[in-house]
Design goal:
alpha+beta, Immunoglobulin-like, L-arginine/glycine Amidinotransferase, Chain A, elongated, 2 domains, five-stranded mixed beta sheet
Length: 535
Amino acid sequence: MSMFRLDDPRLFGLGLLVLVGGMATRAAESMGPLALSGEGGREPVRLLANRDDDDRDGLADADDDQVNGPADPADLAPLSIEADDPRIVAVQLSIDSDAIACFRQDGEAWRKLAVNEAVPLAAGRADLLVECRSWVTVSPAWNGRATITAVGRDAAGNERARAALPVEVAPVVLVPETMPVREVYVARGRYDNEAFVARLRALLDGLSVPLRVHDAGAWQEMWMQDTMEVGASLLPGDDGRSMTVVLAGLRGVDPFPDSLLGPDVAVATVAEPRPLAGGDAWADWYGNLMVSPATEAWPQGRVIYGRNVATAAEFHPDVIGFLAAQQVQSPVWIDTSWLLIKHVDEIVAFLPGPDGRGCLLVVDPLAGLEQAQTAGLAAAVGPRAEAFAETNRRVATAIEEMLTGVGKVPRAGSADGQPAERGLLGLLGWEPSRVVRLPVAFEVPGELPEQGLTDATPLWSNPVNMLFVNGTVFCGEAGMPAAVRTACREAFLAAGAEQVEWLDDACYHRMKGNVHCATNSRRHLLPIRTSTVDR
């Protein structure tokens, strides 16, 4: 076992700086043979924030001073204290953060250590558990790091040795929608969606994926994608433990996320609902937030959220601040100003790609315009045909400017304000060859303004707004011409899907949403290397 040791006599009286897991600790004159170590000797010791509910009492396990049942110790980290000096009979621990607590075994139970409590050593050793009570936070600010310091004392209470060990909480990350699905969620009760739910259930049964159906009390809950974001926290390594972390709703009418609190599932309230109106009323719905797959530059992907460049309204800044503070998936924004429902999941999506390295799906309004004209749809050949064509030309321009960074108005950028000269592709570190385009035609109500565009909606089910489940694309087909279905199927398969299933999502499409808007999912997060989460 690798341990931080300070028993080299050459250190005594020198006040040297000794590195402890990449953090500097000063060796005091009185230091002697005392060591702290975590599991496997890794430093810093990484912890999950113990905010799931193993004993199912309705409270996060970290919100009390107990170890909550037989499963809870697995969410804490073992800490070993060893003393080579036989004069050391006890240690006192101090921790420089209230977010960290230590427990010692007392009979069959675990008890939280009191402040300045002496921990007796048996044969020169004590074994404790370390609990982390919080994720990295912005307000109040905590960077997720702390140091546990142990002072070894003899029977008379004199200090004989001192040692320290850094600890660090695992970051909260969003899970790319290319990852394997564990469970799918949908709501019922406010729209006539029984046939949709039945079809979805049958398809998921064929994939051995459970479907959980929520009885919605408010119409907003029917848009299950918007009620929560299902992320995760994961310890590094192939055997690293993980915990699902659900970012709770921001609309004031989202009881469903709290129902998921349980073993290995935590619920995080990182922002409060805020009053939004007009065209930006839906800015804080979670369809306006996603994450890319891993890229070479970003091994855990990058968070993507929507911003209306016409009004500067964007997805909830407190959530973006929380995700940015994790220092793993540095958030970027794209322009959603031209849409009616200004959500990123109506513009871009991701599939694994034929090489497993990811593809970016984007709407293609010029191909959609051509398909609409070929199909003889009224919007494309009727009295407003020219306005319809101009609408799609303007959307196409906005899409290209967002992807490439070419244009007078920036349509993509990073949350930290860094320039994005190559648009979203540059922010992800991807080349244009990773873009797969899907034909979608858009229309707007009323007359077109002289410049710009807003309030655009898809003429048929938006194929970008699909659900990807373990190799299968679930795509809506409301109003979609047969030729568009064929083109989309070919594009999905070329982008790494194994098969494509179609659902009649008319009940959602007439309310300006599609399959992705209507559903949500809990996914596995693959093991990560330590280097990808270093902050």
